Amino acid sequence: MPKIDFNNTSIAFQHKSNTDLKKAWWLFNSFKSPLIVNVGPKIADIAFSFHLPIKGLIKRTIFSQFCGGENIEECTVAIRSLAQSNIGTILDYSVEGEENENVFDATCNEIIATINKASGNPAIPFSVFKTTGIGRFNLMAKVNSKLVTLNNIEAAEFERVKARFEKICHAAYDKQVRVFVDAEETWIQDTIDRLTYEMMLKFNKETAIVYNTIQCYRKDRVTHLQTTVATLNCKLGFKLVRGAYMEKERERALSRGMRSPIQETKELTDKEFNSVMTTCIQHIDKVSICAGTHNEESSQLLVDLMEQYNLEPNDSRIYFAQLLGMSDHISFNLANAGYNVAKYVPYGPVRAVLPYLSRRAQENSSVKGQVGRELRLITEELNRRKKK
After folding, report:
1. 192 — phi, psi (to 5°)?
2. Residue 91 pairs with which residues in a beta bridge?
3. Is-contact 7 379, C-beta < 8 A?
4. What is the pTM assigned to this prediction?
5. Where are the domains of the chain?
6. Which fold has domain 70-347?
7. Residues 323-369 pLDDT 10s
8. For a Cys-Cys bond, which of 78, 217, 288, 368 suits 68, CB 3.0-4.6 Å?
9. Residue-wise DSSP of 228-292
10. Which of these, 125, 96, 137, 92, lies nearest to 325 by C-alpha position?
């Protein structure tokens, strides 16, 4: 089995200057501070409210680490830089939190703009969107509930959500650009699944264009995947992730006296992820996947599965993906070995992407070993360069 050396820092950071590495080291080190992680985003939002000159500082630090730019064109530098190392870009419009029809229409159009940007460009293999970017969260929660009936106004509103959803998927089909539908909270996910699978049946007849996202910290995803593979008569696309709403899910379940839908331990989540990934490869004639993971063991497992099933590293049905600014040791070493790799490249106005940046800071402070791993690898590379 081919073994990937995820500790090869020379390859992992070949695209970074010493200045870039030192800035990244400072940033990840700052995530150790609960004050910066928990209070910093609130202070930044207040500063924006009072029109204080904080934008430049944010853009030069955390924004430049995790985002490609404030608009699609500003992402060109990141797209080209990644492409030089044979890594694709997934343009991710990361503006969130506003809920009105004009914003939903504008977001729909922006997502289609990312599809147009990706059309015919091998450096941008996927587009992506969140359903809550084109429709109200509470509306989808109501649709998701089997106990509540929509009134006429809500029903019309949901028809507009479905129209935006189909407009995006149709644009992806017309341009032959694969598009991820992001997973969200469990109490709206059934609605998202239903919309996504309807679009798969419509547009995935010859190849996987529309991809659903499987959050493997849920206890039921292997069963969900197996049922979907068995029942849907079309090509299937899945982006596999561990999950992003663990604390919120557990708190909601506890407050309602419900059984938590989330795995009790990280080990069980890892097991679910690996089982889902294995099931996908076992059905590779029907299923295309993108393994969104910052985990070396899962990445190596997929490499091993590809070898076991005689699949070439550059098989177009199989991608690895990580977030911009994180886990370069996984992304760049896999790409260097010939595997298909893409980075999520979020973009949007600095203030509008603050919630996204806040989650990245919290994730790096709370995920076991994340900060320590990034700092160790950066330090090793800086020391290696000093000895040259």
Report:
1. -65, -45
2. 127, 345
3. no
4. 0.94
5. 1-67+362-388, 70-347
6. TIM Barrel (3.20.20)
7. 999 999 999 999 999 999 999 999 999 998 888 888 777 766 655 56
8. 78
9. HHHH--S-EEEEEE--S-HHHHHHHHHHTTPPPSB-SSHHHHHHHHHHHHHHHHHTTTTEEEEEE
10. 92
